[in-house]
Amino acid sequence: MRSILLPALVLAACASSSADARNTRHEIDFAATVERGLREGVLDGSVRFFLAGQAHPAVRQALGNGASSRKTNAANKSDEEACQWAALTVLKAFQQQAKTRGANAVVNLVSNYDRVEFRGEGTYECRAGAIMAGVALKGEYALLAD
């Protein structure tokens, strides 16, 4: 019995570690994520968000740089849903910090997962695994003209 149990346990451990190690890279639509945040009340609309290269009103005052990285539970969620939720927690942190600094926008947002910049055409980078999904963004706080 013992000789059968040990190989079964080793096989189960290997299978679970390979499932946990999944790190699938996704590019998720930024506008759809922000719209979801506004619709669900995660974002309050007081701070606007602009990806790098995206047109925005003139910057009246630059108020410093920021970065935020969050992971969220991905269990029982699609990768896209988990990625959106992770991004929304990042954007909420940016929103809170922007208010503290007197900013009404965060501009020049880029993905910065594992400190590697990614500038998507209307997208941000997310990494999703079997258990967790993560998003990292960096950007510049700004007071924009009306």
Which helices and strands occur, and which strands form pairs?
Blueprint: H1 2-20, E1 24-29, H2 30-39, E2 48-51, E3 59-73, H3 79-101, E4 105-111, E5 123-128, E6 132-144
Parallel strand pairs: 2-4
Antiparallel strand pairs: 1-5, 3-6, 4-6, 5-6
Helix pairs in contact: 2-3
Structure explained in plain terms:
With 146 residues, the protein is α+β, with helices and mostly antiparallel strands. The chain has 3 helices and 6 strands; from the N terminus they run αβαββαβββ. Strands 1, 2, 3, 4, 5 and 6 form a 6-stranded mixed beta sheet that branches. Helix 2 packs across helix 3. The longest helix is centred in the middle third of the chain and has 23 residues, at 79-101.
